[in-house]
């Protein structure tokens, strides 16, 4: 079985929400995410679901990236992806969360700011159930896209690799915050065994093999 994963493809990570964490071209990945999902057996998604009063929350990007003394909230970030706001919504063109086969909401607690979709905590002790879901459905391969390449996508991919899955990163379905950070993230994901693909067309033979 092969699955696809849309990581945090939310408006809070696009220029539609300039006061949050606008990733350049972040709103442009829905078509590619949908295309890769048509080639797999199961579709999974994740969302940040943060409190506006989280311990890591600051008012603007100039105050971001400062270290914090918490086990599971390591840096300050602008308020983003608060339930009930525009930034919490999935980008236009994606299904509703209820239309996915499995969906993860993460970062709900105000003292937790996880990056990966597989664990609720940075220390990776509290599973979101994603890895267990994949194992229960005999998924051995997964293709990942989403926002942002150099943070939540990177961490999620590494978690999936560490869980023993064959992971493909669809670069056409991702966007990153910082070009240097994206390059570093790609190298790190490859070191953990992830395979980079240019777009969904490379998935055709992969999905056939998995079936």
How would you portray this structure in words?
The chain is an alpha/beta fold and 211 residues long. The chain has a single domain (2-210), classed as Rossmann fold (3-Layer(aba) Sandwich). Helix content is 23%, strand content 20%. The chain contains 5 helices and 8 strands. The strands form 2 sheets. It has a 6-stranded parallel sheet with strand order 5-2-1-6-7-8, with helices on both faces. Strands 3-4 form a two-stranded parallel ribbon. The radius of gyration is 16 Å and the shape is globular. One of its GO terms (molecular function) is metal ion binding.
How much strand content do the residues show?
15-25%
| Residue share in helix | 10-25%
Q: What is the topology, as strand order, of the major beta sheet?
A: 5-2-1-6-7-8
Supply the number of helical segments: 5
Largest sheet, in brief, is: 6 strands, parallel
State the name of the first-level CATH class: Alpha Beta
SSE string, helix = H, strand = E?
EHEEEEHEHEHEH
Write down the overall mean pLDDT. 95
Q: Helix- and strand-based class? A: alpha/beta
Overall number of structural domains: 1
């Amino acid at each position: 079985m092969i699955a696809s994963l849309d990581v945090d493809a939310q408006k809070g990570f696009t220029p539609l929400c300039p006061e949050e964490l606008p990733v350049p071209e972040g709103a442009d990945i829905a078509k590619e995410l949908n295309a890769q999902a048509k080639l797999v057996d199961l579709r999974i998604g994740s969302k940040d679901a943060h409190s506006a009063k989280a311990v890591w929350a600051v008012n603007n990007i100039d105050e971001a990236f400062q270290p914090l003394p918490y086990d599971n909230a390591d840096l300050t970030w602008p308020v983003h992806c608060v339930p009930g706001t525009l930034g919490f919504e999935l980008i236009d063109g994606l299904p509703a969360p209820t239309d996915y086969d499995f969906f993860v909401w993460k970062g709900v607690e105000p003292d937790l700011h996880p990056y990966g979709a597989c664990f609720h905590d940075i220390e990776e002790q509290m599973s979101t159930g994603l890895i267990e879901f994949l194992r229960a459905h005999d998924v051995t391969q997964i293709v990942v896209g989403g926002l942002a390449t150099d943070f939540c996508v990177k961490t999620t991919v590494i978690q999936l690799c560490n869980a023993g899955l064959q992971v493909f990163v669809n670069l056409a379905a991702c966007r990153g915050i910082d070009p240097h950070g994206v390059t570093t993230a790609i190298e790190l994901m490859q070191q953990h065994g992830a395979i980079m693909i240019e777009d969904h067309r490379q998935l055709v033979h992969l999905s056939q093999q998995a079936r």
